[in-house]
Amino acid sequence: MYFSKYIFSFWIRLSLYFCLTASCCVLAQPADKTTVVGSKRFTESYVLGEILNLTLRDAGVKTVHRQGLGNTAIVIQALKTGQIDVYPEYTGTILREILKRPETQASANELNDWLKPIGLKVAIPLGFNNTYALAMRSEQARALGLKRISDIANLSNEQQSTLRIALSPEFKTRNDGWPALIQAYYLKKTQKITRAWLSI
């Protein structure tokens, strides 16, 4: 895998493809009920949650947006307990973190079959995807001779130990996140993980 301008695209492609909803359809709710839209604690989730919130309002649905609830586990718990009614989620997160399945892609029908036992379903595709990436200053990449992620494995232990990596809290612990990256590229676990990055 080659990378231009030293932005390292991670192999996990997470389609921002569906909104998870509670079992009843949001638009079928009584007119006097307020639909609660949730979002996680990063910029893209805030924006998509607000787009969903405003779209529902424009359709005549009474809504409120509960922003920045936290990670997947927190948002799913809020969904299951009725604290929120809908939120945008990535297909990869649904498959790996919520359903604990090995697939990397699935249709809406498959997702709904697998989600049904926990009282959830997916609604509409959002029509775009998102890919994790690693980025490094170009001068540092040149100095270390890095052009692709796999080149990191060729660095000495001392060189690898000088790398400081900033990850989101969720990516750091996801089975298909940092642990999978280390395993797939035979990286040593000596890199210093600094505080989580902030989405801009």
Q: What about the largest sheet?
A: 4 strands, antiparallel
Helix content: 25-40%
CATH class group of the largest domain: Alpha Beta
The SSE string, one letter per element, is EEHEHEHHEEHHEHHE
End-to-end separation = 26 Å
Could you tell me the CATH topology label of the largest domain: D-Maltodextrin-Binding Protein, domain 2
Spans where pLDDT lies below 50 across 5 or more residues: 1-18, 22-28, 195-200
- Give the class from helix and strand content and strand pairing: alpha/beta
Shape: elongated
Q: How would you describe this structure to a colleague?
A:
With 200 residues, the chain is α/β, with parallel strands linked by helices. The chain folds into two domains: 4-9 and 131-194, no CATH class; 14-129, Periplasmic binding protein-like II (D-Maltodextrin-Binding Protein, domain 2), CATH 3.40.190. It is built from eight helices and eight strands. The protein has helices spanning 43-58, 72-80, 91-98, 108-115, 138-144, 157-162, 169-173, 178-184, and strands spanning 7-22, 35-38, 63-66, 86-90, 120-122, 128-135, 164-166, 192-194. Strands 1, 4, 5 and 6 form a four-stranded antiparallel β-sheet that branches.
Can you describe this structure in just a few lines?
By secondary structure, the chain is α/β, with parallel strands linked by helices.
